[in-house]
Specification:
It is a single chain. The chain has 3 domains: about 650 residues, ABC transporter type 1, transmembrane domain (ABC transporter transmembrane region fold); about 120 residues, Rossmann fold (3-Layer(aba) Sandwich); about 260 residues, 3-Layer(aba) Sandwich (Rossmann fold), CATH 3.40.50. It is about 60% helix and about 10% strand. It has a 6-stranded mixed sheet with strand order 12-13-14-9-15-16, with helices on both faces. The chain is elongated. The two termini are about 60 Å apart. About 55% of the residues are buried. This is Antigen peptide transporter 2.
Length: about 1100
């Protein structure tokens, strides 16, 4: 159940002056509508007097008309100024709401403790949806509020004007108002309900995308791309169903209101004609009431459209409110609390724990039990203990373990010199780092086992618990050699990169609307539905001049009644019936056209999302280092910005086609009816179109720049949340908030320019319509006075041209939405034009030639590889003509200094990258010749950091595996091999229990990760620093599993172990020692450890 939220949930008292200014200026601008209707009525009153002979000369009549038309122009100019100011101000109000929302979002997230993050399901997916909801609130509280104020004010003033002219006629005309109100309420509730469902589905889809992009290496290695695509397709299909139902409600509301607003003309015609014929009302009063009510109906339709958007904004506010719950979002955590768990320069003299106990929120087992100790600043304090004993929750966690011996020793020596006399705490499994007189705190089962100064013994000199560990629980995004660090550095880089990513200056070249359609045309499904909807839009556009012609016939009947120029027009019944039929037909056609085009545009967006995901999955991991292609940006593009792209079809195409049809038919018809007046009127059409095109071009650039800034902020938020442990560890949340403030200030700067141009576009369209109407009215009445036109012909041309001008100006008001969609369309076109990486798509072989024991199963022959630095456009050579082979069923270790190429070898084996030169063979065939999915089913890589998604144990273990071939007994067998079945069986629902990483130790997670690899029964398995997080006991268990368990389960399996751990090296039958991208030594550890070479050099530093 969503928490209640409202559109102004981020508003403050500081917004009141702007809101008042926007309200007053828009109300003043709205006064122009009733003033214009009064002027129209007065003009026709003058015409009636002229026809009846009350004017003595044509000059006096023309003079009075000239004055009235001049007043219409003045009103138009004044309305433009006040409308411009009002919309500009309301856009600024919306920007302020967005600014506060984004600032509050980051601040609130940074103030949550780590338990809050662990307890949140689908956090990244929800965050992506919240970003979109913030944008929807901004839209709802800016120009839409301005249009709501304008429409509401105009309705009130027009109603007052109509009541003053003729209260009786007004009441008759507005008899259908209750039906309009009822329709708005009913369909508004439906819109709100289905908008909320769409938001919920979008958040689920964003979760899948975030996993797929951020964990791209793992997804590819586990063959999870297809499974993720199926899941994503199912969710976006569900989202499309909710959107379709919402569209059905919106289109129904708009078509009903459109029909009722047009029908008020007919229901008031007969009563008005009767009142004129009996002399109770003058022609001027009737025309004033008529024009007021007609404009009132138009404004009601506009308000209904705005209310539909406000309902979507209300649904967005509810989504945000459900995320920012008052009971946990604003109160949990504090920026000055203990969450700043590490300060590299601790100035205190001691830290004391007195009987401290701790239990994870979702765990029944205590992690710490009555812990008491004191840490002093006179030396280095080491905290050691097995995995799961409680030490990962403390500070400086395994900071030096992920590097080779020599580099670690150098850094440790410098840290000791720097930290002399200062409080320093190091959590480690590596006893070789401890020196004489260091304080050592040993934890076991969450309790202090020993706390004393360290005095080495002969046994301790050589004892190494673990050489290579990572900062997994504190600084999750520190770079390491593991190939699985790459998917994080592509997305959630170290904190310094949070700012650097936003400083790239190459701007995206925005495509034109027609270029986007050309590039994406082949992706549009069911084109016949779009063709049908466009044809209906064309018919709807043609019906407008037809209706205006029929209206003119009815109006001329009232003029006849007033002037007594002819007997009552008995054909009025015919025209009334015809108008009613056309109005009902127009309402049905309007509904069908808009529903079908919106339905088709959603189907197009769904297909684009699916095709884009496939295109992205067919890229190698270097793709995510490109600008605009970071995981957070791609998730926002596919799920959020695609909604803007949808408007290019649902809004632009029907509006443009209707405008063309209306312009051509209206102009041709008006020329036939009266060419002189028609030519004067049509001269404004090119001007309005020129202004519209120029305005659209400028606005598209501004919108693109604005959207780029928004995308950078959303990416910044995503990276900050992904690296929250780093942020909290170094206490830099305040710095991030300051940087966010600077980014928001940049947006505010461009937002002012955007508000100025957007307001100008809205107001300019109104002014052009007013000026064109005034000129046409003046010249038409002048021609009638000179007897060159009949008043009936003049009314036909006037109504035709007025409808044409109004429709042309409405296109200008929709340009901001179109401009927002152009950026998304440009990026989608870029995705669709991607060439699939050969690493992910090439190859079709699936059958393995049987390789005998002792024959090579993996062969590197003269392999070279370089990393491409896109920022500097340079290359860093990692492997240089590397050659080696590994025989079937063997166990081989790969060791070397940091940067020697170990993990690059693993990446090449996993077919995550392609070598520059050379040949990599698996079972005598080049790996590039195999089908990627089949190949990866026959290899497995166990990463340094265990990584699982939100799901059950079963779902994680069988992720990417062909499910029909799996049975629970089969999976249980491998869980027993990894000594994990007893733990899994003890869970509440066994393998159907949701996997909670907080309640499982790092050693257990790593063994679960190994079980996931073994379930695939690979021919080759690579362990990439998989013991680096583990204590001595767990390291020993996994080493035994590597040396004995795997071979016993499947003797044909070949094992490659990448490690820094000396104990593991000693137990491996054979090791390869890498140096400078080449194999420097090969053999048994005991044979080459004392030989001159790279291994001896590394060990001598140990």
């Amino acid at each position: 159940m969503q928490s209640k939220g409202h559109l102004l949930m981020f508003a403050t008292k500081k917004d009141i002056p702007c809101a008042i200014l926007g309200l007053i200026t828009m109300v003043i601008a709205s006064v122009g509508s009733p003033i214009q209707t009064q002027i129209y009525g007065e003009a026709f009153e003058k015409l009636s007097k002229y026809v009846s002979g009350e004017y003595r000369s044509i000059g006096a009549f023309v003079s009075d008309i000239r004055l009235l038309c001049g007043l219409i122009m003045v009103v138009g100019v004044v309305r433009m100024v006040f409308t411009w100011v009002s919309i500009h101000v309301w856009l600024i109000v919306g920007e302020r709401q967005q600014k506060r929302a984004r600032k509050l979002l980051l601040t609130g997230l940074m103030r949550q403790n780590l338990e809050w993050y662990d307890s949140k399901e689908n956090l990244m997916g929800t965050l992506a949806q919240v970003n979109r909801c913030i944008e929807e609130i901004r839209v709802a509280t800016s120009e839409n509020v301005a249009l709501l104020v304008q429409g509401t004010s105009a309705i009130i003033f027009l109603l007052i004007s109509a009541m003053i002219s003729s209260w009786s006629l007004t009441l008759v005309i507005m008899a259908s108002a209750p039906l309009m109100a009822l329709s708005s309420v009913v369909f508004g509730k439906l819109t709100l309900r289905f908008a909320s469902k769409e938001n919920s589905s979008s958040a689920e889809a964003s979760k899948v995308l975030d996993w797929c992009f951020v964990s791209g290496n793992l997804v590819r290695l586990l063959n999870g791309k297809y499974e993720d695509s199926v899941s994503f397709n199912r969710i976006v299909d569900s989202s499309a169903k909710a959107f379709t139902k919402m569209t059905l409600a919106i289109c129904s509301s708009q078509s009903v209101l459109r029909t009722l607003s047009f029908l008020i003309f007919v229901q008031g015609f007969w009563f008005g004609s009767f009142m004129v014929s009996t002399g109770r009302l003058s022609i001027g009063q009737v025309f004033t009431a008529f024009s007021s009510c007609l404009l009132l109906g138009t404004h009601i339709t506009t308000v209904a459209s705005v209310l539909a958007l406000l309902n979507k904004g209300q649904a967005a506010a509810a989504t945000i409110a459900s995320f920012m719950k008052k009971d946990d979002y604003f109160t949990l955590g504090d920026p000055d609390s203990a969450e700043k768990c590490f300060d590299p320069i601790v100035t205190g003299r001691r830290i004391r724990f007195d009987c401290v106990s701790f239990t994870h929120k979702n765990s029944e087992k205590q992690s710490l039990h009555d812990l008491s100790f004191e840490l002093r600043n006179d030396n280095i304090n080491f905290i050691i203990g097995p995995s799961g004993c409680g030490n990962p929750i403390l500070i400086l966690d395994e900071a030096l373990s992920a590097i080779d011996f020599h580099t670690r020793r150098t850094l440790l020596r410098r840290i000791r010199a720097w930290r002399k006399g200062k409080m320093t705490v190091m959590i480690s499994h590596n006893m070789s780092d401890i020196e004489n007189n260091d304080s050592v705190l040993t934890l076991q089962a969450g309790k202090v086992r020993e706390y004393e100064q360290y005095i080495p013994s002969s046994h301790d000199d050589k004892e190494v618990v673990n050489v290579n560990a990572s900062i997994d629980d504190l600084i999750v995004h520190e770079k390491s050699e593991s190939i699985f660090s790459s998917e994080e550095t592509h997305n959630s880089r170290e904190v310094n990169d949070l700012e650097a990513q936003g400083d790239q200056r190459d701007e995206l070249k925005i495509k034109s609307v027609f270029s986007i359609f050309r590039d994406c045309f082949h992706t549009i499904p069911r084109k016949w539905i779009i063709g049908t909807s466009l044809m209906l839009s064309l018919i709807s556009g043609v019906l407008t001049p037809v209706l205006s012609f029929c209206f003119s016939k009815l109006l001329s009947n009232i003029v006849n009644e007033s002037a007594k120029a002819s007997p009552p027009n008995h054909g009025a019944v015919f025209w009334s019936v015809l108008v009613i039929g056309l109005i009902i037909g127009d309402g049905i056609i309007y509904f069908m056209a808009h529903f079908l085009i919106t339905f088709s545009s959603e189907a197009w967006i769904v297909k684009l999302r699916k095709k884009a995901l496939v295109a992205i999955n067919d890229q190698d991991m270097s793709f995510f280092t490109q600008k605009y292609m970071k995981p957070a940006e791609l998730t926002a593009l596919l799920m959020n910005d695609s909604r803007d792209l949808r408007n290019l079809i649902s809004e632009f195409l029907p509006a443009a086609l209707s405008l063309v049809a209306l312009t051509l038919v209206g102009v041709i018809w008006s020329i036939v009816s009266g060419w002189k007046l028609a030519l004067v009127g049509t001269s404004f059409v090119p001007l309005i179109l020129l202004i519209t095109i120029s305005y659209g071009t400028i606005l598209s650039r501004i919108e693109a720049s604005y959207k780029n800034k928004i995308a950078n902020i959303e990416k910044y938020n995503h990276n900050a949340v992904s690296g929250v442990k780093t942020v909290k560890a170094f206490g830099i949340a305040d710095n991030l908030e300051k940087q966010m403030q600077e980014k928001l200030a940049e947006i505010s700067s461009i937002a002012i320019t955007r508000a100025c141009f957007t307001g100008f576009g809205y107001s300019l369209s109104e002014m052009c319509t007013c000026i064109a109407t005034a000129v046409i009215l003046y010249y038409g009445l002048f021609l009638v006075a000179r007897l060159e036109y009949t008043y009936e012909s003049m009314l036909q041309v006037l109504t035709l041209l007025t409808f044409t001008m109004t429709s042309a100006s409405t296109l200008m008001s929709s340009l901001p939405e179109i401009a927002r969609g152009q950026r998304a369309g440009t990026l989608f076109a870029k995705l669709l034009s991607l060439t699939a990486s050969s690493i992910e798509t090439s190859g079709s072989k699936t059958a393995l030639r049987l390789v005998r024991d002792g024959e090579p199963i993996l062969n590197f022959r003269s392999v070279s590889f370089s990393y491409h630095d896109r920022q500097n456009d340079s290359y860093r050579r990692v492997l240089c003509n590397m050659s080696f082979e590994i025989t079937k069923g063997s166990i081989v270790g790969i060791v070397g200094a940091s940067g020697s190429g170990k993990s690059t070898v693993a990446s090449l084996i996993g077919r995550l990258m392609d070598c520059d030169t050379g040949r990599i063979s698996f079972n005598t065939q080049e790996i590039i010749e195999y089908d990627p999915q089949w190949y990866r089913r026959n290899i497995a890589i166990v990463p340094q950091h265990p990584k699982f998604f939100e799901g059950t144990v079963w779902e994680n273990l069988t992720y990417g595996v062909e499910k029909p071939f799996l049975t629970k007994d089969f999976v249980i067998g491998y869980l027993k091999v990894c000594n994990m079945w007893d733990l899994i069986a003890s869970l509440p629902y066994g393998m159907d229990t949701q996997l909670d990483e907080r309640s499982v130790s790092s050693g257990q997670l790593q063994r679960l990760c190994i079980a996931r690899a073994l379930i695939r029964e690979p021919k080759l398995i690579v362990f990439d620093e998989c013991t680096s997080n583990l204590d001595r006991i767990n390291t020993k268990m996994i080493t035994e599993l590597i040396n004995f368990g795997i071979t016993e389960a499947n003797p044909q399996t070949t094992v490659v172990v990448i490690t820094h751990d000396v104990e593991i090296m000693e137990q491996l039958p054979e090791i390869l020692v890498l140096k400078n991208g080449r194999v420097d030594q090969r053999g048994k550890y005991a044979d080459i450890a004392h030989q001159e070479g790279e291994l001896n050099r590394l060990l001598s530093q140990h």
